[in-house]
Amino acid sequence: MNARTEPQLLQQLSNQHLNALEEEAIFILREVAGSFEKPTLLFSGGKDSAVLLKCAEKAFGIGKIPYPLLMIDTGHNYQEVCDFRDARATELGAKLIVRSVEDSMKRGTVRLARPDESRNVHQSVTLLEAIEEFQFDALIGGARRDEEKARAKERIFSHRDSFGQWQPKAQRPELWSLFNTKIHPGEHFRVFPISNWTELDVWQYIARENITLPSIYYTHKRPVVERRGLLVPITPLTPAKDGEVIEERDVRFRTVGDITCTAPVASLAANAEDIVLETLTAEISERGATRMDDKTSEASMEKRKKEGYF
Predict the structure, then answer these.
(1) Mean of the pLDDT values across residues 157-186?
(2) At residue 287, does pLDDT exceed 80?
(3) How many CB atoms are closer than 10 A to CB 249?
(4) Mean pLDDT across the stretch 134-155?
(5) How far, in Å, CA of 284 to CA of 289, rounded?
(6) pTM summary value
(7) Is-contact 192 31, C-beta < 8 A?
(8) Once rounded to an integer, what is the mean pLDDT over residues 107-111?
(9) Where are the domains of the chain?
């Protein structure tokens, strides 16, 4: 038997690690299908939800995912991401439900303090309205514990009361992967199958599985300005301020959300393998480096989650 080289051993260990994470995610996705009457999978078109959808494809097969996909649209999303979302849903033969913050604004359930305010936080209202409309009892999301401290406190099966609120001090234990999925009428669960993944795990999995993503996740040229340590993209929604110098830079997005709160980072990474190498040396978390609305405290994010945020 030939001795294995160090790169081969490292690749085997990496695959074992990714296999374990994938198996856990698939187990949870199937557990949701067997435990709830009206679940849905939150699919934004971002990298984490793309990984989650790939696991769902492996769990059930193309055209056989037993729950619809749900996207809450702020109306300020990058077009590349929306196009990818629609194409992926069609490819998998999955039902896609889109509900818009703009419709909530028309109903008067969302009111902006000013016209240019970020709509990101207001997604909670539209999400809760969609839950009531379709009577969803479980919502599967791609949040990970390594993203942010308040997320790290949350269980994989995270109980929500009849108001859609999260109670951090009343979480159910999850010993030995045994999940208490009992709910009363009007309550629901948020379920996070990739809670235990890291950003590096996600990109290694994307590379291994050759998962297609929106093009803005990879290097491209974009006009930006430097503002409070971030590269702010110049768009009609995020124009330059007086005195700011617009530069065209090579950038990519580490995380994607509402245009008004998502910033790219300087990068020449053209594929998933390049991004794996970049992630290995990154000193700032993906949200810390890219989110214009996350310059807030852990307590602030926890408050938003208690109010129904993703």
Answers:
(1) 84
(2) no
(3) 19
(4) 85
(5) 6
(6) 0.87
(7) no
(8) 94
(9) 6-201+298-306, 214-290
Dihedral class, residue 155 (left if φ above 0, else alpha if ψ from -120 to 50, else beta): beta
Asked if pLDDT for residue 57 goes beyond 60, the answer is yes
Q: How far is CA 60 from CA 36, 52, 65, 212, 213, in A?
A: 16, 12, 5, 19, 21
6-201+298-306: CATH architecture: 3-Layer(aba) Sandwich (3.40)
Tokens of 165: 């609120």
**Tokens of residue 89, six digits:** 């849903």
284 contact partners, CB below 8 Å, separation of at least 6 = none
Question: How many C-beta atoms surround the C-beta of residue 310 within 10 A?
Answer: 18
Q: What secondary structure, in 3-state letters, does the chain show?
A: CCCCCHHHHHHHHHHHHHHHHHHHHHHHHHHHHHHCCCEEEECCCCHHHHHHHHHHHHHHCCCCCCCCEEEEECCCCCHHHHHHHHHHHHHHCCCEEEEEHHHHHHHCCCCCCCCCCCCCCCHHHHHHHHHHHHCCCEEECCCCCCCCHHHHCCCCEEEECCCCCCCHHHCCCCHHHCCCCCCCCCCEEEECCCCCCCHHHHHHHHHHHCCCCCHHHCCEEEEEEEECCEEEECCCCCCCCCCCCCEEEEEECCCCCCHHHECCEECCCCCHHHHHHHHHHCCCCHHHHHECCCCCCHHHHHHHHHCCCC
Q: Encode pLDDT of 84-99 as tens digits.
A: 999 999 999 999 999 9
